[in-house]
Every structure is written in structure tokens, then in C-alpha cells.
Amino acid sequence: MSNLIAKEYQGFEQIKHTDEAGNEYWIARELAPILEYTEWRNFSKVIDRAMLACKNSGFDISDQFVDLNKLIEHGKGGKRKVIDYKLSRYACYLIVQNGDPRKEIIATGQTYFAIQTRRQEVADYFNQLDEENKRLVIRGDIKQWNQMLAEAAHNAGVITEEEFAQFQNAGYMGLYGGETVQDIHYRKRLSSKQKILDYMNSHELIANLFRISLAEEKIRMERYKVLMLLQKLTIKLDKKYGKLLYG
Length: 247
What we know:
There is one protein chain. This protein has 247 residues and is an alpha+beta fold. The chain contains eleven helices and six strands.
């Protein structure tokens, strides 16, 4: 799952981990200072309340709050047991819901983990769709992003239809290893009237959705001059994502 880039969420993003299966998780002792809990005994009370809420919701506590108790060096060669937990996204959500509401960071955490949870719900729903319905969903997203990209490009100086065609062409060249729109039409054996996006599978559409959203964000947020943007995107996407479609 992609990162949340807003400045106020960076603390949560920086301590996020991902296991071998691609599941995101957080470590309790790393989360505590982010939520401005300086003493573990105070944070452990929040965890206890979150565990109770987890149980009352019908979830298995041990699945959401994985015990990571470990021994650390203490004194002259001694060791002591330290309590810690591997927290699921849902566990973190319950923790911030049961945190000190007077803290601004708690409200931020509630928003962050609510967004993360909603994203996962959407991803789970999407993954249950068959290929054709996945295509329809992504195609709809691309249509919306293309409209935003056209507006951003216009505001940045891409005025005429010819200029916008050149702008779009540069985006395709970056993703498809230098292939122009005409080249892609030829390779896919499409007529000039057939739209390239209508003849892509879901994986290829996702790659193009990323390309379009990246271009829109760069223009809108960083106020790139269009020619500089085209050069940068063509080079970066060709190097980083060219293999995405060519194996």
C-alpha cells in the first residue's frame, strides 16, 4: 500500500514496517513516542484498553497484538524482560481511539489509521473483482486523473491541442521505453481511432494511472515548467518503470 505523504503523517510512515507477505505493521515501543507517551506504563494502559476493544469487536487479540517480549542487557551482565508488541493496522487504530484525546497527535493518528484501514478495505474489494471489472474501475480512475492532468497542464502553459498531444506522448515514451503513441498503436495493431487505454489489462492500466497521477502532482504541487517536467518524467519513468511492461 502506498504511503501517505502529508507532513503530519510522516512520523507514522517512518516507523511503518512491512513483512514478507506485504502486510504493514507497527512496533508498540516505536509508536509510543510518536503519540507523545514518554513512559511505557502510561502507554501500556492505552494498549490494554485497545485490546479490550479488540476483544469486544470479535477479533482475536493475539492476531492484532503479536507478543514480541524480549530480553535486553541490564546491569552487570544481567538481562530483563521487555514487553513489546507487533501491531496490525487495526490494533494501531484501536490504540489511537483509546489514547489521550487532549493530544493533537492522537487526532492525527486517528485520521491516519482510519485512512489506512479504508485503503485496505478498498484494496480487498478490488482484489475480489474479476479482470474485466478491475479494468473498468481503473479506467474510471484514469478518466478522472486525465481530466485533472489536462487542467494542470493547461495552467502550466500547455494550451493548444498539438502541445497537449506532445505532452501526452512524452508520458507514454517514459513508461514504454521510448515508444510513442503511434508506436504503441502499431504494436497493439490498433487503428488511429481506437484508444490505447481501452486495450490494456489491469496491470498495464495501473502503471498508466501511476504515470498520470505523478505528472499531475508534479505540475500542481511543485510548479514544474512543462518542458522540464517532460524531460524529468521521461528519464525517470523509463529507468525505473520501463521493465514493468517489458519484463
